[in-house]
Request: fold
Amino acid sequence: MAMVARRVHFKTVLQRPYVTYALRRILTFIAVIWVAASINFFLPRLASGRDPIRSRLGQQAASGGSITGIQELVDAYSEKFGLNEPLYKQYLRYLWDVVTFDLGFSIASYPARVADLIQVALPWTIVLLFTATIFSFVLGTLVGAYLGWQNRKKQVDYLFMPLLTLSAVPYYVLGLILVYFFAFRTTAFPLTGGYDIGSRPEWTFEFALDALHHSVLPALSIVLVQLGSWALGMRGMMVMTEGEDYMSYAEARGVSPRTIFLRYGARNAMLPQVTALALSLGTIASQAVLVEVVFGYPGIGTLLYRSITGVDYFLIYGIVLLVVFSIALVTLILDLIYPLLDPRIIYSR
Reply:
């Protein structure tokens, strides 16, 4: 019967109103990416009113900065983007490069390309923050659901509340505390970096252990901060869910407390948590900045920090496009799967 009900539910969801809504959301997703890419193209030109490459290099030269191969960089961009051509041709060429994710060369790291730099740094950020976020979400949701289910037992709150208060501490502050106690005072963990100096990233068991050793403190700083947020949010939703009629009806029918807790309480209370998780995963690159800078971790956050201090705005715009794309994509996926998670949500009149 459960399988039949599930098939009926999916058949009900995948009707014409849902398909129409899905197509509309996909068009909105494309529009958001187009607007973000257009802002990235026009903003530096509106700010300088001249060739953006020559303008930026001139500012660096005036401030005492130095870049090797300035003329080669200008020539490469002039050939790549056709900076001597009309603006609309440059814009159309730029949009095609965005579609193929080819944003040219990095100013501060010439002749390295923007896509190559992001490709090297992105896996480090995904492994660190994705794993830490998922782990903190699962653990925090379970703890919050248990606290909400046992809301009459105040001693349970007293036991977990000191840990939950860490949600008010910024990532980088807790990271500095962990570095001081576990890397500076006891030397149990390395002070900085994603692997030992002199090592080269490779697919070996020894390097994986080395990278894991370096990622413990940054991951711990993220987990401890996010754990309290997930637990407090889930606790509030669980307390509200306990007062619903279907919970009282299940108890009156003699359903086991475990079934009520998992299938009736936690399952319905965690829907807002799923939304928050999707948005949190979409902003992984932006959340990583200070954490990775504190620990010198070779991810997107450190790359963005170096691009800002090095006035490498093509690399900055590449990372910004990545963040916008990830947020828009996660939001799109969330909108499309929400009716499958909650049968009460339908996209029809």
About this structure: The chain is about 75% helix and 0% strand. The first helix runs from residue 2 to 13. The CA atoms of residues 218 and 226 lie 13 Å apart. The two ends are 28 Å apart (CA to CA).
